[in-house]
Amino acid sequence: MTDQPTRTVTRSEDEWRRELTPEEFAVLRRAGTERPYTGEYWDTHTTGVYQCRACGAELFRSDAKFDSHCGWPSFFAPLAEERVRYIRDATLGMERIEVRCAACDSHLGHVFEGEGYDTPTDLRYCINSISMRLVPDDTTVDGDAGSAPAAP
Ligand SMILES: [Zn+2]
C-alpha cells in the first residue's frame, strides 16, 4: 500500500450543501449514483480535462476516456495516481472500490478491474458525470466569425 494522498480542501457538510446543487451534493457528498445514460458526459468525446465539480482538482483526461457502453463516463486511468484515493466499499452486498477526489474527499464513482475492455490497464473508472466538470482544451473563441474586414 502506498500512502494515501493528503486532503487539501476541507469544508463542512453545511458548506458543501450551500455550494453544490442538491443533485451534486447527493452524489459527491453522499456517495449517490446518477442513473446510467442520464449524465452529461457518458458519451462525450471532447478533448479536455475533467475536474472535480466540488473543488476543481484535475482528475481525468479525455485521452484516458473510453466507450464502455455502461452509461457512465469511463476512464482507464486517472490523470495522476495521487489525484484520487480508493476506499473499499462493501455496500449493496458487493465488494467494490470507491474512487474519491484526493483533494476534497468527494465521491466520484467506482473502479472495476479485469472486465476485459481493450484498454491499457484493464481498469474501468466508472465515474458520475455530475461529479466532474469538463474543461475543453480548445477554449479560444473563433474570432473570424463576426470580425469586420480589415481596412485598406
Ligand atoms: Zn475534489
TrEMBL record:
Known EC number: 1.8.4.12
Protein name: peptide-methionine (R)-S-oxide reductase
KW Oxidoreductase (keyword) present: yes
Key words of the record: Oxidoreductase
InterPro entries: Met_Sox_Rdtase_MsrB, Met_Sox_Rdtase_MsrB_dom, Mss4-like_sf
Family matches, as NCBIfam families: peptide-methionine (R)-S-oxide reductase MsrB
Catalyzed chemical reaction(s): L-methionyl-[protein] + [thioredoxin]-disulfide + H2O = L-methionyl-(R)-S-oxide-[protein] + [thioredoxin]-dithiol
Pfam family, one: SelR
Domain named MsrB: residues: 13-137
Top-level lineage group: Bacteria
Keyword Thylakoid among UniProt keywords: no
